[in-house]
Amino acid sequence: MKIAVLGGDGFVGWPTSLHLSDAGHEIHILDNLSRRWIDTELGVQSLTPMDSIQERTRVWHAETGRRIHFHLIDLAKDYELLKGWLARHRPDAIIHFAEQRAAPYSMKSDRHKNYTVNNNVNATHNLLNAMVELDLDAHLVHLGTMGVYGYSTVGAAIPEGYLPVGIETMDGRTVSQEILYPSNPGSIYHMTKCLDQQLFAFYAKNDGLRITDLHQGIVWGTHTEQTRRHAQLVNRFDYDGDYGTVLNRFLIQAAIGYPLTVHGTGGQTRAFIHIQDSVRCIEIALKNPPQGGGRVEIFNQMTETHRVRDLAEMVARMTGAQIAWLPNPRKEAAENDLVVKNEKFLNLGLAPTTLGEGLLEEIVDVAKKFAYRVDRSRVPAVSAWTRDIAAKVEHDP
Ligand code: USQ
Q1: Would you list the DSSP string of 372-392?
Q2: ipTM for the predicted complex
Q3: What is the percent of the chain where pLDDT is above 90?
Q4: Whose CA is nearest to atom 32 of ligand 1?
Q5: pLDDT score at 397
Q6: Residue 216 near residue 270 (C-beta atoms within 8 A)
Q7: Which of 83, 150, 244, 389 lies 20 to 30 Å (CA to CA) from residue 382?
């Protein structure tokens, strides 16, 4: 297939591009390199030394003989450029990662809230709009988030996107209907993914676009089979308070002798998936496009759930690290349970990589290797969800 990977220079986009190129597909990365600009804005860098996208694709070609094409396009701002590119290339499938993905970054300031909403919502809408205008019947696979559901399960498992409900009619009958699971975002970033869901539902219904939305959990790990092949193919690996995600942060913190930064009681339960499974799931989704019919296909892309404090205790046992119990900069439930259905990927052949498989040590080793690149002052998470919380977090020693 000819596949456009929008946001193919990012944390999941890059290993996905390599995985699909390796599988024989013709890959075109469209990216505005915003993630690299945000590193510059924040004054942080990936723990792993990353080369330019042009250099990465050159090395991939030298290693494998396969080409990955790169096109510098801002989806949110350059509608005509995007439309022109799609008109010329008419890809068979489009994978859409091209959004600002960090919840703390999205809550930093009014400017960051505006940026995240404008960037994410415009990127998604520009893409859908152009596909209809060009009569492009490509399968669109979008990377969504488990965060669209919120994290309280009221004792029931979260289904894969849709919820059957019974509605009482005026004449006293009960009719059943299927609705999108009620969205309950916990940050501006997560809210943009809820808005994406509405855009997808409309364009699938109105224009018959074939869309798959993958509600992914928190990714852990950094390497995939392909990024291991050459030092310059390495994936990015974030440790800072805005972009580093919880388990990867704990592992890096353990490697540099920094106390593990648990927010609050660490009672938050979240869904997780290893980066290798993430790229496999995307391939499985590509191979199983929806047949149309006006309904968006939704998968829960996660393999395990864990409580934050259990992860911290596990990493502490494994490495001898200390745990720091910190005031929570976020507005979120202190404790929650979470049960998630993920049968669709399992039925399509996904064999999950779990925490128990020795990969945690590998991540600590990667972190130790590049520990000299860590700026310890950038480890704390300082983006607060409200002014009240900011005042508390600042005043708590
Ligand atoms: N947390 C800590 N200590 C830390 C960092 C985080 O206790 O040092 C806690 C947070 O308070 C939160 C939980 O760990 O309760 C998860 O935080 P996270 O930063 O690992 O994940 P999140 O902000 O939810 O976002 C990440 C990705 C996002 C993706 C999402 C999937 O950045 O792109 O959509 O995970 S999910 O969480 O399932 O919605």
Answers
A1: GG--GGG-S----SSHHHHHH
A2: 0.99
A3: 95
A4: 102
A5: 44
A6: no
A7: 150
Ligand 1 and 113: CB distance under 6 A: no
Of 148, 263, 342, which is best to mutate to test ligand 1, by the most ligand atoms within 8 angstroms of its C-beta?
263
> Residues with Cβ < 8 Å from 171, sequence gap 6 or more?
none
Q: Collect the ranges in the chain with pLDDT lower than 70.
A: 153, 395-397
Helix boundaries (H) for 177-235: 188-207
DSSP 317-377: HHH---EEEE--SS-S-SB----B--HHHHHTT-----GGGSHHHHHHHHHHHTGGG--GG
Active-site annotation, residues = 145, 189, 193
Retrieve residue 47's tokens: 């723990």
The answer to whether 140 touches 127, Cβ cutoff 8 Å, is yes
Q: Are 12 and 276 in contact (CB under 8 A)?
A: no
Phi, psi at residue 213, to the nearest 5°? Answer: -115, 125
What pLDDT is stored for residue 396 in this prediction?
55
- Does the C-beta of 336 come closer than 6 Å to ligand 1? no
CB-based contact 50:236 (threshold 8 Å) = yes
C-alpha–C-alpha distance, residues 71 and 83, integer Å: 13
Q: Residue ranges per domain, the chain?
A: 2-395
Q: How far apart, in whole angstroms, are the C-alpha atoms of residue 39 and residue 373?
A: 14
Q: Are 60 and 21 in contact (CB under 8 A)?
A: yes
Helix (H, G, I), strand (E, B) or coil at 119: helix
Measured CA distances, 89 to 26, 27, 138, 155, 388 (Å): 11, 11, 11, 47, 50
Contact present, 300 and 215 (Cβ < 8 Å): yes
Q: Which fold has domain 2-395?
A: Rossmann fold (3.40.50)
pLDDT of residue 392: 82
CB of 30 within 8 A of CB of 8? yes
Q: Which amino acid is at 169?
A: T
**Is 262 touching ligand 1 by the criterion CB < 6 Å?**
yes
**What is the Cα–Cα distance from 352 to 169, expressed in whole angstroms?**
43
